[in-house]
Amino acid sequence: xxxxxxxTIALFGALTFVCCLLAPIVxxxxxxxxxxxxxxxxFADNVDAQVFFVARLPRVIAAALVGSGLAVxxxxxxxxxxxxxxxxxxxxxxAGATLGAMIAITFHxxxxxxxxxxxxxxxxxxxxxxxxxxxxxxAARRRGTSSTxxxxxxxxxxxxxxxxxxxxQLVADFTDTLRNVRWMMGSLDxxxxxxxxxxxxxxxxxxxxxxxxxxxxxxxxxxxEAAESRGVDVRRAERIALLSASLSTGAAVxxxxxxxxxxxxxxxxxxxLVGADHRLVLPASALFGASFVIIxxxxxxxxxxxxxxxxxxxxxxxGGPFFLWLLxxxxx
Amino acid sequence: xxxxxxxxxxxxxxxxxxxRREELDAHVPPLAAGRGPPSFSSDLFLSRCDAPLVTxxxxxxxxxxxxxxxxxxxxxxxxxxxxxxxVPRGAIVGLLGPNGSGKTTLLRLLSGTVTPAxxxxxxxxxxxxxxxxxxxxxxxxxxxxxxxxxxxxxVLEIVLxxxxxxxxxxxxEGADDVAIAREALAATxxxxxxxxxxxxxSGGEKQRVVIASALAQSxxxxxxxxxxxxxxxxxxxxxxxxxxxxNRERGVTMVVSTHDLNLAATLCTELVLLKAGxxxxxxxxxxxxxxxxxxxxxxxxxxxxRHPRAGHLTVVPLARAD
Lengths: 332, 322
Prior knowledge:
The complex is a heterodimer.
Chain A: H1 2-22, H2 33-36, H3 47-80, H4 93-106, H5 118-141, H6 147-171, H7 174-184, H8 194-210, H9 214-220, H10 224-229, H11 234-256, H12 262-274, H13 278-302, H14 311-331
Helix pairs in contact in A: 1-13, 3-8, 3-11, 3-12, 3-13, 4-5, 4-6, 4-7, 4-11, 5-6, 5-11, 8-11, 9-13, 12-13, 13-14
Chain B: H1 2-27, H2 52-59, E1 61-70, E2 80-88, E3 92-96, H3 103-111, E4 118-123, E5 126-127, H4 133-139, E6 140-143, H5 155-160, H6 175-187, H7 203-215, E7 221-225, H8 233-250, E8 253-257, H9 261-267, E9 270-275, E10 278-284, H10 285-288, H11 291-298, E11 300-306, E12 313-320
Parallel strand pairs in B: 3-8, 3-9, 6-7, 7-8
Antiparallel strand pairs in B: 1-2, 1-4, 4-5, 9-10, 11-12
């Protein structure tokens, strides 16, 4: 087990590292990696290094964080609800986070808390709110609500929150609306490290918390009562897991907008590769999620250059058919 | 000096233990006292005054419930309503009762997954309310009616989950945990299934793997909720044989809820008859299982006879009793 864990983390870690290193090289201005890391040229004169570190790396790091955050949230939701189709998108948690962020942007809400700025904070509040509704339904599920009902509720919740979003756009002034629309498509147009740091705080916290969960998630995925009889304090574990998932969703959405399907595509590919054990699935999904969004963003930036697609379109184009394939496979 | 005071402390400890046992016994209301319909023949009850037998049982009791009651709805009716029962170490106790009589809830109370509204449950004379979930899991394992896995776990992975209460946080299973899991697989005759995916197994295979997972928990008590409910005759027989063997060879104490009266007759050393959340009778199988109790429990006239070749009681339902 230990060897498998180390091998998995090493392999997926290497993939993520390579993505982080190579993705910033690609772009409208060609740069060379050897010049970027050249020690003989001072940074002020090294155009390649400036493009790499100032213009492109923040975006790549943002992509990595968003990917990890959404993938981890997806893994947690799927295990807790014992449903492989659960994800921040299907449960309406992404929509909640989006609404929160949108309110903060449109109404220029300016409240910070413990170093977290207002947009990540608002989107966390939004995701936690949406999650609260899901949690109530999930609790009722023990008394017989099926997981289909839960997913339907997620769809209804998403539609409802979407309507509120459009209402807010209606009252927002024109420039804000343009910003909002672009942001809502899921865009990683991050050109400085400030928003990254702002999102990193809650996300790091969420990941540390999630680090204690994998075995518990294995047990809960076998059923709450089975988990309890094996010695898991299910209620406590559920609260911790949901807090961590909503924090990481909130942080991810505040950084990149509601980039769809990451929370469902990534955990599934990872499970096909490493099996069902969450001690492998959770770290592997965090790393693979990062690589996945970096690559999708690379495609978004370059495929139709000079026009940039929002990264959300790329993940949706991959994720939509993938989701349908999953459904077909489950039915077959 | 030090040794002496040490001995004194141990003596004191024993004294307190004994006192606690007495207090406990004093708490236990006689079973016959006003429970069940009055028409019910009283010799079916194994009351406290009945005996040296009961005292002997109590002294080596593994699991004991004293007047436990529970309602899912705060103002709703009690699903389990003042049940007192004693599970002697090494016994296989069968829980019989019609649908909705509170069997599953009683198992939940015994395992501590729900907290009683009244009364208490003790394991080895320790109240379970003082034990953490993890400590409980080291003493009691549960085999639920059906187990579905949301993800594609292998059989070995499922069995290894039973080791959870023995591992510290962040600790990975070591070689001994894997050895225990493999032994549990061997004991349930599922060693050959080890590399298979759990989801691809048949119902009977799944049930045996789940029993293996419970065995890997290394607890002395096993609670089984209708372990043969959805299995065909062949698998039913296999599970019954397996449980009897685990009891005989490993001394696992079991509480088994079931609707299968013949399974109960073959397997169980004692029976608890439950109706509407109350105990109708509690005692050795031979004494409790008869035509009267079957009629009272299920409203069915039945012949309860000793099977000439099998050597145990068999129940043959004849007609609906009205």
